[in-house]
Amino acid sequence: MEEKEKKKWLWVGKIAKKTLARAIDLVHEDMPVLELAEKLEDYIRNYAAPAFPVNISVNHVAAHYSPGVNDSSVIPAKSIVKVDVGVHKEGYIADAAISIALTSEYEDLLKASFEALVNAEKTLKAGVKTGFVGAVIEETILSYGFKPIKNLTGHKISRFNLHAGKSIPNTKTIFSSKVEEDEVYAVEPFATDGAGYVVELSEGYIYRLTSARRTGDKQVDRYLRDMWRRFKTLPFSERWVARFIGEEKAKIVLSTLLKKKIVTVYPVLVEKKGGLVSQFEDTVIITEKNALITTGISELVKEIL
Fold first, then answer.
1. How far is CA 76 from CA 79, 85, 86, 123, 264, in A?
2. 3-class DSSP state for residue 108?
3. Which of 41, 95, 138, 193 does the annotation list as catalytic?
4. 71 in catalytic set
5. Could you write out the DSSP letters of every residue in 194-254?
6. Could you give the percent of the chain with pLDDT greater than 70?
7. Averaged pLDDT for residues 264-269
8. Does the annotation mark 88 as catalytic?
9. Which domains, and CATH codes, for the chain?
10. 84 has catalytic annotation
11. Is the pLDDT of residue 297 over 90?
């Protein structure tokens, strides 16, 4: 990887870290989830662009919850709040997450996923098999008396592509591939006191364009071109579309594009038995000798644990 390109990966990583530091300052009991998401997204826009809608997943919700246009939910008392942010500039992406507990009783659950992340990062270097990294994550979480979520994984990232093929499992697996030098990965261990498995809800608030082909409806096609220009293949929120075409039109356009399979929606993921979930995540660049961490959330965790 050329030094110029590496600097771009590292720069967006710094913005993601700053955004999560902002989240630590903002999160509090009874805070509207919509307000939190929009404040963090606007903060990112001061420097770059969101690579996906800010995910705010509370308690048994593991991933893919980002508030819709009129979301009325608030942060509950004594909850675990997982804040997952993405930053991109010119398609270079940083993906990072932290868990904030509003009570000390969940400290061990947070430590389980954070230490699993640290241990995984210590093992990563060119040539290491992803299954070995998954085994390290699993052993660490089990040592705390919790379970890793086996059907959630880390993922390779490339420009304008948040999920670029290879995965970093959170459990030992026979399905394994090697990580290669200069590849970029998001590593994200999830720990739970539940079943260790997530299921999909029928609701979803995060979308992604899978095609830019015409629908035959001139107005919808005009909005589609604008969405492609703004988001390309990166995930986006209904809220973002509503900003430039209005709430009612956004619902109609997204519904039309869903029916024609031009967009896909990410269902909200919840722990199968309603267990609490913690998550920590960094983005790393694979080098010959180690993993170069772009987001550096370890420095923030001192304020949480």
1. 6, 20, 24, 36, 30
2. helix
3. 95
4. no
5. S-S-EEEEEEEEEEEE------S-HHHHHHHHHHHHHHTTS-EEHHHHHHHH-HHHHHHHH
6. 100
7. 97
8. no
9. 3-200+269-301 (3.90.230.10), 206-266 (1.10.10.10)
10. yes
11. yes
